User: Which sequence fits this backbone?
């Protein structure tokens, strides 16, 4: 599998920093090369280059339609599973990203 470039979106870009570490560790454990970037919701349009998937933190799920319109179906967009986000389950979030890319 090629390198997976993931953009995590939250309110300020900070609440996802621990999740980034967990996703990258899950990638290493599964021999999947990942690049994970976290950005605040208002800065998404400046960070779309070379992204394979965009995952929104549950706290910004209300922006999902707006971000989907911004990427015009060129990049899969979804809200991170609430339980995976709450428990910082990097493996589950990585699997969600992979599933979206394969669709």
Assistant:
């Amino acid at each position: 599998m090629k390198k997976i470039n993931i953009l995590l979106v939250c309110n300020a870009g900070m609440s996802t920093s621990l999740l980034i570490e967990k996703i990258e560790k899950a990638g290493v454990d599964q021999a999947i090369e990942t690049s994970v970037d976290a950005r605040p919701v208002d800065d998404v349009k400046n960070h779309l280059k070379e992204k394979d998937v965009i995952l929104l933190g549950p706290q910004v799920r209300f922006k999902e339609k707006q971000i989907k319109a911004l990427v015009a179906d060129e990049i899969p967009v979804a809200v991170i599973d609430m339980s995976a986000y709450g428990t910082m389950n990097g493996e589950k979030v990585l699997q969600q990203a992979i599933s979206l890319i394969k669709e």
